[in-house]
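Acyltransferase
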Amino acid sequence: MLTLLLAPFRVLINFTFGALATAIIGLLVIVVGLPKLILPIPVVQRGLSTVANALFRVWGYAMSMMFRLTQPMHWHIQGDAQLHRDRWYMILCNHRSWVDILVLMHLASRNMPMPRFFLKQQLFWVPIIGLGCWTLDMPFMKRYSREQIARKPHLQGRDIATTQKKCAKFRHIPTTVINFCEGTRFTPEKHRRKQSSFTHLLPPKAGGTAFTLQTMGNQFDAILDITIVYPSDKRPAVWLLLSGQLRDIYVNVETIPMQPELIGDYFNDERFKAHFQHWLNQRWEHKDKVIGELTSRANSQPRQ
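Tokens:
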């Protein structure tokens, strides 16, 4: 019956469901996390993190429900599917919309460890979400400009040290670390401004990916190259989802075995830096072709 409702009612239902699920589960995660402030005992903190992670998976299931709450959703997932919840992965993903996060949550809730994101420090102050992410040990990144470092040299490398400390906590709970290598959502305007050599992608930023591998590379079981495509439409994917008009999502998953040559000091080893940039650009050239193929496939399907 919900699929027969007019778009404004679908938006209201989906938005209310998503907001309530986030608020309720987020508050439960925070309640679990509060003892971490007063009980800095490693075994206790790991136990609380495990409970918080289970609640995070419940939120993943809730977000997955949004894809079929007010519309018949068709998932077109191709590629490797032999993934396990008790392992460690790093995801390289293109970034088209905020819906990408919900897509990755849907995939994770099925057969992957729950993902972790590198977040801007400002997000810590977002009600519920900020404290919830802190409880889940997600790293909050504080970037220092060259001017700040010039004035205060002791800030040099502090963001890297903070991230290493946070990532160390991932060793105790199977985790999927997500990297949107473009650094921002793709738009035609950004594509033109950056003079991208790719048809469907912005140029990848190699530093964050290389640093993640330097910090946790020996722990990752594999790299997951995930490509997401929505059928061509001038309206934002988030609006199509909320209004019940997002009927198809195309996902390609490729598993890349971990290789020792992908782990190195990107910021101090020029030879490794050139090698890693070349490797990532090759992955991006391949991903660009995959997006073209999936887009052609998506646009050739009859619209419902």
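The chain has one domain: 2-300.
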